[in-house]
Design goal:
Bit1, globular, PTRHD1
């Protein structure tokens, strides 16, 4: 499914996976306990070559990751894991309230891909593993710039991102 955002000239390519049944969840449980004890996290992968080879400003590169992350959260907003992740707002201060409790924060990992080909390869791997994500495509350049997963328990998604380094 592709959602075109005509006002910005960008598009979001979405991948929707099937619900994970409880039997499958048992198979990925950690030795320490159930998945409910594991942190929920969202991975965001941004292309490094946007900064190095293409000389994009830092703000523009950050924006690409934000578009993908928000796109994934919005698209999978009805998913139970996404609801749980979004309820972990311990680090969010708003004018409405601040509890001071930071023990239940959202966890987001921002990594860098070498280039578009490496990002597309990961997208194909995630497709084959039936993992949900959003892939941000910038227009008029028509290039994939960022990928963000829906929130998952760490053990369910981390293996797909082990080869990538933190974006610096």
């Amino acid at each position: 499914m592709v959602a075109f955002l005509r006002s910005t000239g960008s598009s979001l390519v979405l991948r929707r996976s099937e619900q994970i049944c409880s039997r499958q969840r048992v198979n990925v449980m950690s030795a320490a306990g159930s998945l409910d004890e594991e942190p929920m996290l969202q991975y965001v992968l941004v292309r490094r070559d946007l900064m190095t080879d293409m000389q994009w400003p830092l703000g523009s590169v950050i924006t690409q990751g934000v578009h993908a992350a928000v796109g994934a959260l919005w698209t999978y907003r009805e998913d139970e894991d996404t609801k749980k992740y979004c309820s972990q707002s311990g680090g969010l201060e708003t004018s409405a309230s601040f509890s001071g409790d930071i023990s239940n924060q959202m966890h987001t990992v921002v990594l860098g891909a070498k280039n578009e080909a490496e990002m597309i390869k990961l997208a194909e791997t995630l497709d084959n593993a039936d993992k949900s994500y959003a892939l941000w495509r910038e227009h008029p350049e028509n290039i994939c710039t960022a990928l963000a997963t829906k929130p998952y328990h760490k053990s369910e998604i981390q293996p797909y991102f082990k080869k990538f380094r933190l974006l610096k």
